[in-house]
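Hi U.,

Before I forget, here's the chain from the pilot set. I'm dumping it here mostly so it's searchable later in email.
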Amino acid sequence: MNIAETETPLIVEAKACGFNNKSISYRFIESAHSLCLGKHELVLAQIQACERLLKYTQDGLELSIIKKEIEELKLALDMLHY
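Structure:
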């Protein structure tokens, strides 16, 4: 039996934290990834982590914070291309 991995491995996990001043924090799922990621791969991993977090969030304030974070990360990704 051949088992193929179809999804990209999860590198970074995102979490909304704080009470009044909520923000997004990140953590590496595997510590080895923190040593060999470039800026581009790190920002992409953060975007993917935020998109996963967005699926499971129901709080309106957290939704807006996550969406804003995704926009800022996409802007940073665009800036890295130049």
